[in-house]
Design goal:
CATH architecture of the largest domain: 2-Layer Sandwich
Shape: globular
CATH superfamily of the largest domain: Bira Bifunctional Protein, Domain 2
Distance between the termini: 23 Å
CATH class of the largest domain: Alpha Beta
Number of helices: 15
Helix content: 25-40%
Number of strands: 29
Largest sheet: 9 strands, mixed
CATH topology of the largest domain: BirA Bifunctional Protein, domain 2
Number of domains: 3
Length: 566
RNA sequence: CGGGGCGUAGCGCAGUUGGCAGCGCGCUUGGUUCGGGACCAAGAGGUCGGCAGUUCAAGUCUGCCCGCCCCGACCA
């Protein structure tokens, strides 16, 4: 490709609004162009990179036994009513009506469609296991698109679905795909960690996410370096510092004027937060919930949401707390009625806690569960924190950051039962098909590669997905010998089967070198009067500083050699 | 949806008390340069997000609307 003809100019400046490194670089390098919030066009170079990511994925999915197919974007909403997932997806589902007022949606994922196909096409255990996948555009009306391609409303996803006769087969498939995912990410030069995850709106029992590790990541991962326990913060468990034991003492009222927060109250009474109970109020599907946790802990809202089985969860305002007859800042779980109380296990570790008295400027000392109050539900709803013990081995946990580039789920049978996907086993009995599903966000993966491997000069593509392998840079093209040599090198490199971006623009050396670094192709070849004097061309790898001269004679095959080694 | 911010040339931005719409980059033409974002000269390019209002006069003041970004709840 000749740079002079390429759509997608490099930009020196981009809006201050784009503050994520990958977003800035993709805009500056002319890879993408924004159409609307969370909706982007891929310009030619960006599209090449995306297609390369797809082909790496495709190779590994095929190797894992996948059969590629293509399902429609447009789906009848009836399928979603049938699966019961229309509500959990809620506003995220883009819906529309056709001319006959039939309600359709733009597929946010394809479990319904694929299960419907399998329900009709697969009847026997002989047809299983079955692995189907596609690379397709998905639509999700995300409340907040973010960070360029990191979270968008229209995106390419590789989605695979597996169908099994029994749990053992599902388990085998699950780990086969997991290993394929690890190969994909490592082929793109990413260091990823497979972590336990919450299964969210997709549903199902077990699930893991693949996190591309790096400071720029927006997800938190909790991990143990001793036993390799790793989980998304949403899901992570931990062994908390135990509370102090003690014989329950009589409850005592104590005046705490103006002391509302845990730190204020604990400090005022000469205690640590661990000796207090924290009351937090949420509105779960419109209903007030009193959440109680030990003062040194924080609520994990995903765990809470799962415990309450609600679709919508938010913190409540003070007015809503007062309306329930409680005093914000001094609310007490003791002696109240008509409010659902749920608690974290941590309140049972320790004794004689300080809690609110449900009176202004007053707290209670020596509050003990279950002597002084009851709760409706008790579970682990606490955030894991660094330094706390690993749930498996007790070693101190650490927290890392990462970008979620893949997510796999063991769905089990809940969808196949609802969608009528069953098979006849050897004994002739009809049983629901056991399912798994596996997703990779292709565009996000592309952005993650840039996000995690760029330097201050620009993108650094791994050879596996670089839009072009070689950036051919011709300096002083007005000189006939430079022009002729550059054209010859361009042809020879292509004849070797290399993909070449030929910078044939009338630009100064600085501009070309800077654009070469920005665009980040693995290898730069420079032809100039200076190199021609020595009958050579200069070669430089993007990720290295050093340059070297290679003779023009046999240049193309040497370049190919360097690229296969690097 | 809650909080914060921004919409002015293709891109990045300035525009004071309301008084001729500007700067840098990019683009076009000509010339000089040439190994890390060169220089000179001459040009082209605008519904100041939209609608309404106040005013002799609105980019600037008021109201409503739309769009975009960032922080939260959500996710590949």
């Amino acid at each position: 490709m000749r740079f002079s003809q390429l759509l997608g100019k490099t930009l020196r400046q981009v809006s201050a609004e784009a503050d994520t490194p990958s977003h800035q670089l993709m805009l500056r390098a002319g890879l993408i162009y924004q159409v609307a919030a969370g909706i982007y066009s891929y310009l030619p170079t960006g599209w090449r990179a995306l297609r390369k990511v797809e082909s790496v994925i495709r190779e590994e999915m095929d190797r894992a036994g996948g059969q590629e197919l293509m399902m429609p974007v447009l789906q009848p909403c009836e399928l979603w009513d049938q699966s019961g997932r229309r509500r959990p997806f809620g506003q995220t589902l883009f819906t529309l009506k056709d001319r006959r007022e039939r309600v359709l949606c733009l597929g946010p994922t394809h479990e319904e469609v694929v299960t419907d196909i399998v329900a009709h096409q697969v009847k026997s255990y002989r047809d299983l296991p079955l692995y189907l996948y596609q690379i397709q555009v998905k639509f999700r009306d995300e409340p907040r698109p973010r960070g360029g391609l990191l979270r968008v409303r229209e995106f390419h996803m590789k989605d695979m679905y597996s169908f099994h006769t029994d749990e053992a087969s599902l388990d085998e498939g699950y780990w086969t795909v997991a290993r394929a995912y690890e190969r994909i990410f490592s082929r793109l030069g990413l260091s990823t960690l497979m972590v336990e995850a919450d299964s969210g709106a997709i549903g199902g029992k077990a699930s893991h996410e693949f996190m591309a590790l790096g400071e720029a990541g927006e997800d938190e991962v909790v991990r143990c370096e001793q036993c390799n326990y790793a989980a998304n913060m949403e899901k992570a468990e931990s062994r908390k510092t135990p509370g102090e034991k003690g014989e329950p003492l009589p409850v005592e009222e104590v005046s705490t004027p103006g002391k509302k927060s845990i730190d204020e109250v604990a400090g005022f009474l000469g205690l640590t937060p661990r000796h207090t109970l924290k009351a937090i109020f949420y509105i779960a599907d419109g209903k007030l919930v009193f959440v109680l946790i030990r003062g040194d802990q924080e609520v994990n809202e995903v765990k809470l949401k799962n415990l309450l089985r609600c679709a919508e969860l938010r913190l409540s305002g003070d007015e809503e707390i007062r309306a329930a007859g409680l005093v914000p800042g001094f609310a007490s779980p003791a002696g109240i009625k008509g409010v659902t109380i749920v608690a974290d296990h941590s309140i049972t570790s320790g004794a004689n806690f300080v809690a609110g008295a449900n009176k202004p400027d007053t707290h209670l000392k020596n509050v003990n569960y279950p002597r002084d109050f009851q709760v409706e539900k008790m579970a682990d709803i606490a955030r894991a924190r660094p330094g706390e013990g690993c749930p498996k081995c007790g070693h101190p946990l650490t927290i890392a950051r990462g970008i979620e580039v893949g997510h796999i789920f063991k769905l089990g049978t809940f969808l196949s039962e609802k969608m009528g996907a069953s098979f006849l086993d050897k004994a002739g009995a009809s049983r629901p098909i056991i399912m798994g599903c596996y997703g990779i966000g292709v565009g996000r993966l592309l952005a993650a590669v840039i996000e995690l491997t760029h330097d201050d000069r620009g993108i650094i593509w791994p050879a596996s997905i670089a839009p072009y392998q070689v950036y051919l840079c011709a300096l002083m093209m007005e000189k006939a010998d430079v022009l002729a040599t550059a054209e010859k090198v361009y042809n020879e490199l292509q004849a070797e089967g290399l993909e070449v971006l030929f910078d044939d623009r009338q630009e100064s050396p600085g501009v070309k070198f800077n654009d070469a670094d920005l665009l980040g192709m693995p290898l730069r070849v420079t032809v100039s009067p200076r190199t021609l004097e020595k009958g050579s061309a200069e070669v430089k790898l993007r990720q290295q500083k050093e340059t070297r001269l290679l003779p023009l004679d046999g240049l193309a095959s040497q370049v190919k050699q360097i690229l296969t080694v690097a």
